[in-house]
Automatic annotation (TrEMBL):
UniProt-annotated catalytic positions: H140 (proton acceptor)
Record-given protein name: NucB
Record-linked InterPro entries: DNA/RNA_non-sp_Endonuclease_sf, Endo_G_ENPP1-like_dom, ENPP1-3/EXOG-like_nuc-like, His-Me_finger_sf, Non-specific_endonuclease
Matching Pfam families: Endonuclease_NS
Keyword Metal-binding included in the entry's annotation: yes
GO-annotated molecular function: endonuclease activity; hydrolase activity; metal ion binding; nucleic acid binding
Name of the gene: nucB
Signal sequence, renumbered to the chain: 1-24
Database matches in Gene3D superfamilies: Extracellular Endonuclease, subunit A
Organism: Segatella bryantii (Prevotella bryantii)
DNA/RNA non-specific endonuclease/pyrophosphatase/phosphodiesterase domain span: 72-280
Positions with a binding annotation for Mg(2+): N171
Sequence ranges assigned to domain ENPP1-3/EXOG-like endonuclease/phosphodiesterase in this UniProt record: 92-280
Keywords (A to Z) from UniProt: Metal-binding, Signal
Length: 300
């Protein structure tokens, strides 16, 4: 395994920004039309992939970027806060060829390995798994079910650094429903030019957004989010989801009730999503009204 450390319909009432481009597939070149972009990430030798569309603006400071590769293909990336020992987000691409099912969900020992590409002092060890004695699930951010294209890609999704603590009713309930919905947007039958860019995480930066801290120091986010960007032959469109995991399953409502635009998600999280889009495209796709987002993604 090679790993490098390093995320309108202009018709009717919808705004879909046109782009004529080829499928990113498993390439990691930065993307999109050539245009002004003042907030783009600048790739470096140690953060080679941060110019890809799934990446938010990297935070810097105590945070590091780790990108996991399966062979020459980028599997997923994370931003890890080394001081808090917590994942801020995981981001990844979905396209027809990595939606092929060639393996099954990993089961092994350890079930949740330490990240081999992170300094051990920055993360929890398998022998001291902070999830081991608490009531929360190991909540995948890049889901196992999104990476059945190879055994190695699937295995990597079980790294402890790709996990956040989730109440079981939330993890197996509306969060799982959202993951299934996102998978339905890209299938093996999708056009080879279609790509989905996904960034998911839990809130760890504001004390008011942290539900609790466990005896081992593990932060338990109160809120979870997902930012999704679709690129297809029509252009770009984006959608955000925002959840309070402390709300009981019976009161979570429908997925549509959790939809927000990306501007709102950025206000809630302090994260600049899809910063590598040209500025005019980013502004359009991120500010669309919720009712138009629901229509564009066929959720109304």
């Amino acid at each position: 395994m090679h790993t490098i450390k390093s995320l309108f319909l202009a018709m009717g009432v919808l705004a879909l920004v046109a782009c004529g481009s080829s499928n990113d597939d498993n390439s990691t070149s930065t993307s999109g039309p050539s245009a002004s972009n003042v907030n783009a990430n600048i790739p470096t030798a140690s953060m080679k992939y941060i110019g890809d569309l799934e990446f938010p603006k990297v935070k810097g400071g105590n945070s590091i970027i780790i990108s996991h590769l399966d062979g020459d293909s980028l599997n997923y990336s994370i931003e890890w806060d080394t001081e808090k020992k917590s994942n801020r987000w995981s981001c990844y691409k979905m396209y027809w060829s990595n939606r092929l099912s060639r393996t099954t969900r990993y089961y092994g020992s350890p079930q949740y390995p330490s990240d081999p590409d992170m300094n051990s002092s920055y993360q929890y060890s398998v022998d001291n798994d902070p999830f081991g004695d608490i009531k929360y699930d190991h909540g995948h951010l890049c889901p196992s079910a999104d990476r059945l294209n190879s055994a190695n890609s699937n295995y990597q999704t079980f790294y402890l650094t790709n996990m956040q603590p989730q109440a079981h009713s939330f993890n197996a309930g509306i969060w799982n429903d959202m993951e299934s919905l996102i998978r339905s947007w890209i299938t093996v039958n999708s056009s080879h030019s279609d790509t989905l860019y996904v960034c998911k995480g839990g809130t760890i930066d504001k004390s008011t957004d942290i539900f609790t801290t466990t005896s081992k120091g593990l932060l338990v986010p109160r809120y979870y989010f997902s930012a999704v960007l679709m690129k297809n032959s029509s252009g770009y469109k984006a959608i955000g989801f925002w959840f309070d995991q402390t709300v009981s399953a019976s009161k979570q409502g429908t997925l549509a009730s959790h939809v927000v635009n990306i501007d709102t998600l950025e206000e809630k999280t302090g994260i600049d999503f899809f910063c590598n889009l040209p500025d005019d495209t980013e502004e359009h796709v991120e500010s669309l009204a919720v009712e138009n987002i629901l229509r564009a993604w066929k959720l109304n």
